[in-house]
């Protein structure tokens, strides 16, 4: 097993216009802004990210002019209770745009999350509530700062508010989520870093059992469930590539088999793919210009005081890129591994390196195609292989793995792997949770859902694309179907944005075909890729609820919009504390024309989580996602040229 790294962010020389900002560029952006704008000493740099150049400029390279390197910066000034956006020209080291954005709250910084906990634990009202529950060692308590949603009853929308929830560990290294403090919340102003209020509506006992999961917990008789000694009957599985991996990496540009693409990274989205194309007939044919996870939404279904505050927009309210895990060989990835480092910023504007933020490796994925001629006994079998590009974000109790897969047969897949710990609640002896499931004595997991939206800036053999919805329909019995067996795949063109807001229908095999009507395949049909839904759900939260209003994108699975580089996020730029009707519901109000034009497809998929006892204390991975498969993009099976495995699978 080997692992390879890109150059450290500080010394990276990859200056392609889509390359993520280096540590030096982040530092330059902060320095220039402090000097030119005379920032208040307490100003907080929320995010410093690449300001991507116009798509047309990038697609014109290398013939066209090289665009300037620019940083897009979001700043919160706590003293003024104000949010600002800036653009910094990194080549000329000057601010080109500076504007106040009224009435919005950007995402929380890790420092705000940390300082909020200190403020709550210093508050006498919170301390008294803990004393009433018999907690004397406050060092064992932790708080998680949950955003408040849209709460007009709290007054001034410019106040930067969170509602921390409290948990108590049984020991310094123990799992805090085993002992939630039910009935207790605080309200904190992050600008002032001051506790405004503490609400305590009851004294539900703390759950009595620890919820530890490490091997050193085997001796604890009070742990739930009991941790047994590690298994000793698993023999090693070794993945080797004696000749090295099949991919090549130059900076952030990757070639693997017939695929070519660029890797990007932003503090909000994390992993981004650019300029994804497939080599066919001597040229790289474009498929997707930009692909990213645009938003995550997790609404909880329990209306009690503590649980009803839980409805996180993990990208717009916290920033998934800031929370990326360092990936470990043999744990997160196996085989011949290439790691990409990333770099984000802290709230002082200093660069923060993220080592091994992205992992890339190859996997054998079983049989790709096979045929046996039963008359002659001839057998042809080819293996399927895929390239895996992945990262993991630690968003509080949950961990989310983001996995892009590229297959040798032209398939593109995106998958979220959910694991980590459920967010828990406490319940009194003899009670049964109405809105959740018991996972340990006195402890339950509330019902909840997870929704993810992926933004796909499509360019199937060019930017001029059309989208059809395809449904299988039975032909009525009659002259056209005299034997009752006929059915057709009926295509409906989604001409405008008002019509391109759809939900899945597995009973008709519904999928969406993204085609280029100007480019024809060998059979004279438009080249296309189809989006194939996986398992999915719709929100059960009411659309009129404060969380539902902000998550309008989640009530439709498939959206298509006219391309606009300013429209990047399904819930809008600033979902934190917003009243709602932003993002996709607002983008589509213009009802723009979509046919044979530059379009963006958005797909929302969800996980419906009725908690099981088996989800405690650490949840086994659950996978959700979708596929993009070629549908007339090629003239035939593009994996026909896969070589037979040496010594096997050859011509029979």
Largest sheet: 11 strands, mixed
The counted number of beta strands is 32
**Major beta sheet, strand line-up:** 1-16-17-18-19-20-32-29-28-25-26
Rg, Å, rounded: 26 Å
Shape assignment? globular
Mean pLDDT: 94
Could you give the distance between the termini? 34 Å
Instruction: Name the structural class.
Output: mainly beta
Strand content: 35-45%
Q: Would you identify the regions where 5 or more consecutive residues have pLDDT less than 50?
A: 6-13
Task: Indicate the percent of residues in helices.
Answer: under 10%
Q: Count the helices. How many?
A: 7
Description of the molecule:
This protein is mainly β and 652 residues long. The chain has 7 helices and 32 strands. The protein has helices at residues 23-37, 55-60, 110-121, 124-132, 314-318, 546-550, 584-587, and strands spanning 2-5, 44-50, 70-77, 82-89, 94-100, 141-147, 161-168, 180-189, 194-200, 247-250, 253-256, 259-266, 270-280, 283-299, 311-313, 336-345, 351-373, 378-395, 398-407, 412-420, 425-426, 436-440, 443-446, 448-458, 466-474, 487-493, 501-502, 511-520, 526-533, 558-562, 599-609, 619-630. Strands 1-16-17-18-19-20-32-29-28-25-26 form an 11-stranded mixed sheet. The longest helix is centred in the first third of the chain and has 15 residues, at 23-37. The radius of gyration is 26 Å and the shape is globular.
